[in-house]
Structure formats: structure tokens, C-alpha cells
Specification:
5-stranded antiparallel β-sheet; globular; alpha/beta; Rossmann fold; 12 strands; binds zinc ion; Gyrase A, domain 2; 2 domains; about 290 residues; 7-stranded mixed β-sheet
Length: about 290
């Protein structure tokens, strides 16, 4: 059995504040990357104990350059980087059997969830796929389902694990911490959760939710924070501007639809970074 792991960073045990997930920050370099890699290794161990024949890990946080390559279990292969051209889960095809979603946070707007967001805190208020409001967990799991791959393990903040179980059905879930609010969390000991993750990964090899089937065409709808971001996203050919802040994209080919999703998010990010840099501001008149 072939296992694909997507691992994010916000939902890793012991990741307690923003500096630990910020690329380049000393807290990220010395602590965040180490904790994230340890959780990946715990799952890789469990997968092989459960009979996996191969494990491919996608570094799924920010620029995809977080996993400490030299410390990763050598039995696994690693995909790093982040590019629209290679898609959300490079290499994931129907030869894979199980998807592990690790280190995840809940979708934007979830209460009592640490770092709740959907793809980008700076641009996205709400994302739906085929009229189901989803976060990143839903996005990855739905895409895997279209390839016939089931979600078998979810680890992360408690509300993120609940989100995954609600959407995909019964499978192995390991809650490594519990958000108290967006910027507050009660975390289990990072070393202690590794045993649970290994156990969950091992058990996941024998069971998991059936692949989530979604109907075609795929309808993506993104509600942005500001109309300026929707203005940018609307430049994707074939998109539909359904309201000032909402852009939709409908396509029979799921890969095209998901690629459009990535393109819209990337374009919206340009508007957001212009805003953040002060380009759109006019001194004190901004309130
Ligand atoms: Zn992340």
C-alpha cells in the first residue's frame, strides 16, 4: 500500500505561537521545523508497521520548505516547494491507497481553534467546493477522493480533527492539542503525542473513510476579505464574479478547477500584499 502524507505546521503539538510557523524566524528554524519533522517520522513509522510499501511526504506549510530533510525517516520520499504548476499534491495518483492529513488547523471561522484559516489569512474569508464549506483539510481530501484515495489519518488541533471526521467519515484521528482561541492553545506534550501518531498511522493502514466522491462539474466558490482581491481573482479566464467579494469557477475537469483555485488565491495574494505594503493607503485618511 502506498501512503501520501500532507503535513502542515499550525496543528503540530508544541507549536504554540506565530513565530514558530513563520519561515526564517529563529523559533521556526530551531523549534517548529524540528517538531513538524518528528510528527512526520512518527507517522512514517506507523505506516510501515502497518504494511505500507511506500510513503511520500508533501511539505504543506507556506513555501513547503519546513521538513528537515536530513532528519526525515529515509524510507520516505519528500516533496518540497510550492508551485501552481505541480498542483496541490504532486505525485498523488490512483496508485496511492491512503492519505494522511497531518499538522492541520481548522478552517477559517472555527471557534476555539488555534490559527483557524483557509489557505490565506490575508485574503480568504470562506471557501466552498460543490457548496460544501471547506478548509484545507476538505480541499486536500476532496482532491484525493477524486483519485480514489481515502483519508485514513488526521492529526492536529482538536477542531481540525473533528472537521475531518465530519467531512470524510470515521477514520483515525489524533488530537495533539486543543485551541482555546485563535491565539491560545492547550497542547499535549510533543514527545508524548508521537506514540499516539505512530499507533494511529499503523491502525490507519487497516481502515479509513471511503474516498469522498464529489459530483462533476466541480464548483469552487471563494469569498475574499476585500473586493480588491476578488478583482484580481476574476482575471482567471472562465471565472464568474458572483458578488463584490465572491468569485466562482466551475469546470468538468477537477484538475482544472483546483488549478483555477490556486491561481485565484495567488492573484488575490498580490492584491493583499499591495495593501499590506501601503500601496493602497493614503496616510491618515485610512480608517
Ligand atoms: Zn500552514
Amino acid at each position: 500500500m502506498n501512503v501520501y502524507i500532507v503535513i502542515d505546521m499550525e496543528g503540530v503539538a508544541g507549536v504554540t505561537h506565530g513565530s514558530m510557523i513563520r519561515t526564517g524566524h529563529v523559533e521556526w528554524r530551531d523549534r517548529g521545523t524540528r517538531l513538524m519533522t518528528a510528527e512526520a517520522n512518527a507517522a512514517i513509522e506507523g505506516a510501515f508497521l502497518g504494511g505500507a510499501s511506500s510513503v511520500l511526504v508533501k511539505d504543506g506549510h507556506d513555501s513547503g520548505q519546513n521538513i528537515r530533510r536530513e532528519d526525515l525517516d529515509p524510507r520516505a520520499e519528500l516533496v518540497t516547494g510550492n508551485s501552481v504548476t505541480v498542483g496541490l499534491m504532486p505525485g498523488l495518483d490512483s496508485t496511492f491507497d491512503k492519505l494522511f492529513l497531518m499538522g492541520f488547523h481548522a478552517k477559517m471561522g472555527t471557534r476555539f481553534a488555534q490559527f483557524d484559516h483557509t489557505i490565506s489569512t490575508a485574503t480568504i474569508n470562506n471557501l466552498s467546493i460543490n457548496n460544501i464549506v471547506v478548509g484545507e483539510i476538505g480541499m486536500y481530501g476532496m482532491l484525493a477522493g477524486l483519485r480514489g484515495v481515502s483519508v485514513a489519518l488526521t492529526t492536529g488541533d482538536g477542531p481540525a480533527v473533528d472537521e475531518s471526521l465530519d467531512l470524510f467519515g470515521a477514520h483515525q484521528g489524533v488530537r495533539v492539542k486543543q485551541g482555546l482561541g485563535r491565539f491560545a492553545v492547550r497542547t499535549f506534550n510533543p514527545a508524548q503525542v508521537l506514540t499516539q501518531i505512530t499507533e494511529g498511522a499503523k491502525n490507519a493502514m487497516d481502515n479509513g473513510a471511503p474516498p469522498l466522491e464529489i459530483s462533476l462539474p466541480v464548483t469552487i466558490s471563494i469569498d475574499f476579505l476585500r473586493s480588491a482581491e476578488a478583482d484580481m481573482a476574476e482575471m482567471v479566464p472562465g471565472s464568474l464574479r458572483s458578488s463584490a467579494r465572491t468569485v466562482q469557477y466551475v469546470h468538468e475537469d477537477p484538475d482544472t478547477a483546483f488549478q483555477a483555485l490556486q491561481a485565484m488565491v495567488a492573484l488575490a495574494g498580490i492584491a493583499a500584499s499591495r495593501w499590506a505594503s501601503g500601496l493602497y493607503k493614503s496616510g491618515d485618511s485610512v480608517v
